[in-house]
């Protein structure tokens, strides 16, 4: 598998899979195999993340920012323990 094959797999499978799970917060983890650290792969992932970030509605971002203060106070009052957020 070369870097273009890897990019094709990510674009064809990973992005659509992640989009099917919008309620979950997921983290893409890689093991720094040579195919994963190539500039073309990094650029493709960066571009895909930028597209997804830019697709978030402005109203959603405003709502999240507006809720930050209450969330911070919640974390402080619970001394860092689990909150409802």
TrEMBL record:
It comes from the Eukaryota. GO terms for molecular function: nucleic acid binding. InterPro entries: RNaseH_sf (IPR036397). This is Uncharacterized protein. It comes from Mesorhabditis belari.
């Amino acid at each position: 598998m070369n870097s273009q094959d890897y990019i094709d797999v990510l674009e064809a499978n990973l992005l659509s899979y992640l989009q099917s799970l919008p309620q979950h917060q997921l983290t893409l983890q890689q093991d720094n195999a040579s195919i994963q650290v190539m500039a073309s792969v990094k650029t493709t992932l960066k571009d895909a993340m930028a597209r997804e970030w830019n697709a978030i509605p402005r109203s959603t971002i405003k709502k999240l920012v507006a809720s930050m203060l209450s969330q911070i106070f919640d974390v402080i009052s619970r001394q860092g323990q689990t909150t409802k957020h």
